[in-house]
Specification:
The protein has 167 residues and is of the alpha/beta class. It has six helices and ten strands. Helix 4 links the parallel strand 5 and strand 6. The chain is globular, with a radius of gyration of 14 Å.
Amino acid sequence: MKKKLIALIMISMSLSLTGQQSMFKALFMFNFAKYIEWPGQSNHSEFIIGIYGKDDSFEELKKLASTRKINNKTIIVKSVGSPSEIPNANLFFIPTSKSGQLAECISFFADKPTLIVSEIPDACKKGSGINYIMKNGKMKYEISRANIVSHRLNVDQKLMALGIEVN
């Protein structure tokens, strides 16, 4: 199963994103979650994904959530106007439109086991765990082990190897 997911991530990363970027962002987020271990997750029946503001990936994530699970948990996807509306998010996505609030989000989730995913230039250097980038017309991602671990999360080496590591 993991080999299939890794292959899916690699195929997805190699495809051009013209007109399909939101679908790929959602698919990436779904797959990122499969390679992260959250503390105490066995005590929860839901996996919560927060989307800050409006982003096209919201609808794509809702579609995925309706047919799949993450680590045998029901996926809940919420679009929020503030990080405080979803303090127990497992994954929190900050789109480009909310780039001015990156520091606020990093601060809000600093002591929480939340994977912060963004699409903001240099976001991993500012505290994001994973950050989407476009390289040669293809979606890639930067990943910061230090930022992920600071949220008490464990990241699988396979996910690290597929991304562009940022210290």
